[in-house]
Amino acid sequence: MTIAAQPATPLDEALLEVLAPWLPARRWFPAKGAAAALTLTGVLPLADEVRILLVRARAGSIDALLQVPVVLGPGTGEVIGTLDDQDVRDGAADPAFLRAWLAAADGPGTDADPDAARMITGEQSNTSVILGDTAILKVLRALQPGENPDVDVPRHLVDHGWTHVPAPLAWLEGEWFDADGTSRRGYLGALSTFVSGAEDGFELACAYAGRGESFADLARDLGTVTATMHTALAAAFPRLDAPDGPALVADGIAQRLAWATSAVPQLAAYAPGVERVLAEVRALPATPPRQRVHGDLHLGQVLRARDAWFITDFEGEPLAPLDQRTKPDLAVRDLAGLLRSIDYAAAVGGLTGDAAAAWTDEARDALRAGYASTDGEVLTRALELDKTLYEAVYESRNRPTWLPIPMAALDRLAG
Description:
Blueprint: E1 2-4, H1 10-19, E2 37-47, E3 50-59, E4 62-72, E5 79-83, E6 86-90, H2 95-104, E7 117-119, E8 127-131, E9 135-139, H3 149-159, E10 168-177, E11 183-193, E12 199-200, H4 201-211, H5 216-236, H6 245-263, H7 271-282, E13 302-305, E14 308-311, H8 322-325, H9 332-349, H10 353-371, H11 377-398, H12 404-414
Parallel strand pairs: 1-10
Antiparallel strand pairs: 2-3, 3-4, 4-6, 5-6, 7-8, 8-9, 9-11, 10-11, 12-13, 13-14
């Protein structure tokens, strides 16, 4: 089923006034530390007391259409404020919203209990809600038109027999209008099997780092699972040969540097080092065929349960347009993302100096060994540098206190 947006009513405009002070403090709100202009572009009605407000947030270069479900009246969701003596609640984990969502969604379905829902804390770009320990719903906060890889890719992987991804259970689409009146259609959320008893990969790695315990065995296993994922993705989606592959990679990183420098001016100091890396890439005779990849793989996107790794969150980089996130890419870009995440785990786990270097070197070497890449250190290093430039922009916008982590990696990769 597809939910079509309706024009906002005076009630919806009043709801936005209630939401306006609350939105900027949400972890998924795209404009941090800036005064964002908020406008209501429409509403998706799910039930009498359940409304999904479509809120356009603009601040500088940021222009995002946000999905904000609210529940009016009694419920269990967080109370945001009041309107006409009724509570205005955050709908994402409220049973009234979840029941309406499940009733409207497509897919195999589930018997999960909305009354036993609980929200996952700590996410950045979306909101995930566990339903009765059997299913997990991801509410996509920043809406984009088109096929969503976080729904499409797991369905293909499961069809090809890959068992390291939670199986999709349901999905819901919506229709809305752009500022210029163009009709758009895209996913609002997806429900998947919940991996019970799982540990978050990043939290697990941070705990190992905090104890000074080797993460090498788990990193090696994760590298192997990532390689099998790429094999399954290559079978499930078309591959693309790129005869001018080295030039494409180098040009892409050059564009990333220009984008990153415009957002974080101090990155300009690394331009000479980046150019040296790009010269090595351009000297390569070829690059492997491009294929469907995860696109934003890091330790926070993997789960450890029953002595196995599970890979989740196939939506790609949250700041990238949807059409870019579904294009074939180099498989080792995912490996580069995991390598970067090991640096983050060491820093957040509290390791510094020689201890941090020893821990990360061992884990990174094991990850590469498990993946058994034949694509060469030059290409992996270049894509790790590309990821680090993205991280610097993301951290400057969303978690400024974490900015030193990618900056330290830039010293190593392009200093």
